[in-house]
Specification:
Length: 308
Amino acid sequence: MTRVKPSNVVVLKKGMEQAEKGGYALGSFSPRYTPMIAAVLRAGERTQSPLIVQISSKELDRYGITPKAFADEFYACIESERITVPVVLHLDHTKDMAVIREAIAAGFTSVMIDASEKRLEDNIADSKEAADYAHRHGVSVEAELGMIGTTDFVETDKDEELFTDPQEALRFVGETGVDALAVSCGTAHGVYMVKLPSIDYKRLQAIRALTPVHLVLHGGSGVPAEMMKQAILLPGGGVSKVNIATDLELAFLAALGREERMTNEACKRLSPEDLEKGRAAVEAVVADKMTQFLGCAGKAGQFAYSAE
């Protein structure tokens, strides 16, 4: 049975087109626990920001969540929280087509195929397969070229880093038909402990000049605001989607006086008081990112007005 989606739940391609036109980036926020989805959505509604709610395949496994359970909670919150701002439901880093098919069936409006560790030809083949399938179902597709490092191994398995080559990006986008491209240009997943964040702006500009698709920056947690703003406002179009996950979980755990992450079921068993305390902390972080970091606060009305 196909899920009927509210009109404000949109595909990633539409959201990124609007973001580039408006000179801001969409925050792609991973709540990691289903009870925290409401907090992310509340921040978007409060700041009138278009946004993306996401979870990666590895996070689904680590926290004990299915794509359907995540989507069900997302759509329940859209209704119960009376969310009116534009929202994308996105499946992040995924290597398995079966998970992509499951997410699309559950109502995700965007999926990411990540075959970036493979040879270019195999990455192209896998990404094209995902794009062809998703497009047949009216869903946007993100892929990755180059390898984005990690510090916490929550979203990805490896910490290798390989910067994206602009000429390879031109070929990759042309042959796969993907809607968004995650590029490697200096950021990393997780918390910056030793390495400091950096962004290769010239590389970003070269990639965007050669490709018609919008660019995604993973590893947004911990990147200075001025550095991110420059990446978003590059002449000719910069970054239109920024992934933020670790900062949300750290805020949630800190609010509860915890350091160790928990399973999704353990989170759901928290007292109502602790859940609201955690939600308030996550909402505050997301609202701050929207206002100070991404430039998307107050842009929901502009999106809705000019989206069609």
